[in-house]
């Protein structure tokens, strides 16, 4: 059955080269007026003048767009959507030139959100997150990656991921859950008798198995940054995540260089590369990432292209990587239907 969308004030086609866009190309929306769209299932079969498509597809079911804009769905590949109290006051400080690490030293930053989230129930977090995601949908977003990472205990990380699962069921959005238990070293593991190694062991031995057993996340992410997780620590956690069948992400060298770019390059030949710092780091140690189209049954395509901001992390297995990473062990045979990805994405917090 075909469907024809008409009465479109402005159609945004994003038509252009059949590859990832670069530079000024990303500003070209390619808008049309007087146009209609015909789809069949999830596939666009025709875009053209309204009268032409009406004549060519007279039996199509008609959707009246009411004189609105029709555009491709936006994909938000990086959100920290599960939190309690917003930290708006920190935006003012950052705008005034106070650095992220200084804000954290004053008791703000991630630790502030951690204290807040731990005191809230799953129901409360769900009620807070729901309107945030509805707002994204109202602005045209159709796919959203959502991270945990403000719990930093097994129970609180699981609580956050369960909120994401409930949101998946409550919203007509495609939500992609990411486990970010390695968002920070919790305060309680910074002084004796506890150690940061014990927290990393908690992630590896308790959190990740629990997340995998409940299938609560598609991805695992780590904040690899001086003062947070070192590249060696991240390597351990990435390896464990991969063994549990999770795909990999990395907050890589966002503030300072910590070897995260090198880690991504050595771990995933098709690593998605974002920041200039990341690209510089990757280029020193490895050849540029090769374009790697990843099919998503027609709904989207993700490209691992040099200099390309990561698009929505597709959960559909892509083509095999040229070789397995050498420093992170290959995954055990996946015990679930999820793909065992061989790529990382890196992006800003
Ligand atoms: Zn982030």
Q: What CATH first level of the largest domain would be assigned?
A: Alpha Beta
Q: What is the C-alpha radius of gyration, as a whole number of Å?
A: 22 Å
Strand order of the largest sheet: 6-7-8-9-10-13
- Binned, the helix content reads 25-40%
What structural category arises from helix and sheet content?
alpha/beta
Largest sheet: 6 strands, parallel
Number of helices: 10
**What number of structural domains do the residues give?**
2
| CATH third-tier fold name of the largest domain | TIM Barrel
Which residue ranges are poorly predicted, with pLDDT under 50 across at least 5 consecutive positions?
269-349
Shape descriptor reads: elongated
Q: Mind telling me the CATH superfamily name of the largest domain? A: Metal-dependent hydrolases
Distance between the termini: 43 Å
CATH architecture assignment name of the largest domain: Alpha-Beta Barrel
Number of strands: 13
Q: Can you write the helix and strand succession as a string?
A: EEEEHEEHHHHEHEHEHEHHEEE
List of distinct ligands in this structure: zinc ion
